[in-house]
Amino acid sequence: GGSAAGVRLWDLAREQPVPVPDVGPVRDVRFRPDGGELYTAGSNGAYAWAVRADGDALRVGPPRDLGVPGPAGQLRLDRAGRRLTTANGNGVRVLDPTDPPRIVARLDHQ
Question: What is the pLDDT of residues 34-49, one digit of tens each?
Fold first, then answer.
């Protein structure tokens, strides 16, 4: 889950923590439905993280910046994993989180 210390992820099969690079405090996390990517929102923006098996170990990262201006708050992901919504004090952004990510819709606070 997310915390003031960043992201903490646990490999249940190996019963040990998975190393995750630090991007600062995190407010929300979501997994893509197929489990291949983790999305985080926090003080330093929104990020996508590749999640993959490497032999017996689970690997995460490096983080890929999704281009959300300012801090990012809540995240929501559609069922197919093709649209990611972020909300913060600036408004709401709907993203296509593929590489490179792009903002497909925005609603700014007035």
Answer: 999 999 999 989 999 9
Cα–Cα distance list, 27 to 24, 43, 66, 96, 100 (Å):
10, 8, 15, 20, 23
Q: What values do phi and psi take at 99, rounded to 5?
A: -105, 115
Nearest Cα to Cα of residue 60 among 13, 99, 22, 101: 22
Q: How does pLDDT run across 49-105, given as a tens digit for each residue?
A: 999 988 888 889 899 999 887 788 899 999 999 999 998 888 899 999 988 899 999
SS3 99: coil
> CA 67, CA 61: separation in Å to the nearest integer?
17
Nearest to 35 by CA among 21, 52, 56, 18: 52
